Amino acid sequence: MHTACSPTACSSLARFAFAASLLIAPGCGGGGPASGAPQKGVSPVAGDWNGDGTDTLGVYDPASGFFFLRNTNTSGQADLTFSFGAGSLAFLPIAGDWDGDGDDSLGVYDPTNGYFFLKNTNTPGDADLVFRFGGAGAGGIPVVGDWDGDGDDSVGIYDPSSGFFFLKNSNAAGNADLVFTPSTGGAGDEIGGDWDGDGDDTLGLYDPTNGNVFLRNSNSSGSPDVTFALSPSRTGFLPIEGDWDGDGDDTLGLYDPLTGGVFLKNTNANGAADVTFLFDPIP
Ligand SMILES: [Ca+2]
Ligand SMILES: [Ca+2]
Ligand SMILES: [Ca+2]
Ligand SMILES: [Ca+2]
pLDDT tens digits, residue range 131-154? Predict the structure, then answer.
């Protein structure tokens, strides 16, 4: 669950037919929300910020390093606004339940050196966890999920240069716990979530050129278990995933960073969005 994609990061594409949830966006911390100027290069993140069992949207603004989180999937202003730690325009935002206490919080990944900066609370301050792990080199794309189904989310990296996923079951330095590459070809944005509601998160892929989604229910090489077309798919729309209706499985959605349009689907199947609203927290 929990992912975000920036137009730049996500376009660095993955080559395979399924993928995972990832997040991506440049960012960095600063004094306060930037004002004026166009700031539509924002990236969506999704998570259960208040621990009530449903995932909702957030937006990360790379220009200011601020996160804007909303606790309901409805139009309106952000319920939480903050930045944390030092930042860099290269940073990519991620979200997950790092400490397994039931709520999701934020993090950023620095693709230039492989370091993760994770925060256990959605508040300003220094990161609670800072580490990098062996396996993937620089230039990776972060993914997040509860790969082992033990109740906490941990990170992973997709290495576009090799096509391998490196997943870690703990948010700490060390070697990757799972290393594999998808067996099928394709390009798109990696996503991750608990597609089948069995308690563990697995990978998937969204192809922004046609809206096709490829989901895999196990973290291993192989063909996708579920394929469908997400709509309305348009150029520039970014995939998000989460448990929008709190029924225990993660499903897909799309965010339009230009208008703040949100389109959420409650099933991983063809068809129109079940929930649509606007979340455009940056004037
Ligand atoms: Ca929630
Ligand atoms: Ca938590
Ligand atoms: Ca876990
Ligand atoms: Ca699962």
Answer: 999 866 678 889 999 999 999 999
3-state secondary structure 177-238: CEEECCCCCCCEEEEEECCCCCCCCEEEEEECCCCEEEECCCCCCCCCCEEEEECCCCCCCE
Stretch (H or E) spanning 252:
strand 251-256
DSSP per-residue codes, 72-129: SSSSS--SEEE--S--BTT-EEEEE-TT-SS--EEEEEETTTTEEEE-SSSSSS--SE
Q: What is the DSSP letter of 9?
A: H
Q: What is the pLDDT of residues 2-24, one digit of tens each?
A: 444 443 333 322 222 232 222 22
Q: 144 alpha carbon to ligand 4 midpoint, in Å?
A: 13
Residues in the chain: 283
Residue 190, amino acid = E
206, 20 contact by CB (below 8 A): no
Query: How far is residue 189's CA from residue 199's CA, in Å, rounded to a whole number?
Result: 23
Compute the distance between CA of residue 193 and CA of residue 202 in angstroms, rounded to an integer.
Answer: 5
Percent of the chain with pLDDT over 70: 81
- State how far the Cα of 13 lies from the Cα of 106, in Å rounded to an integer: 23
Tokens matching residue 184:
């099928």
Nearest ligand to residue 243 Cα: 1
Q: What is the distance in A from the centroid of ligand 3 to the CA of 233?
A: 31
Yes or no: say if 119 and 128 are a contact pair by the CB < 8 Å rule.
yes
Predicted structure pTM score: 0.84
User: Separation of 202 CA from ligand 1 center, angstroms?
Assistant: 21
Which residues crowd ion ligand 2, with CB under 5 Å? 97, 99, 101, 103
Q: What are the tens digits of pLDDT across the range 262-280? A: 999 999 999 999 999 999 8
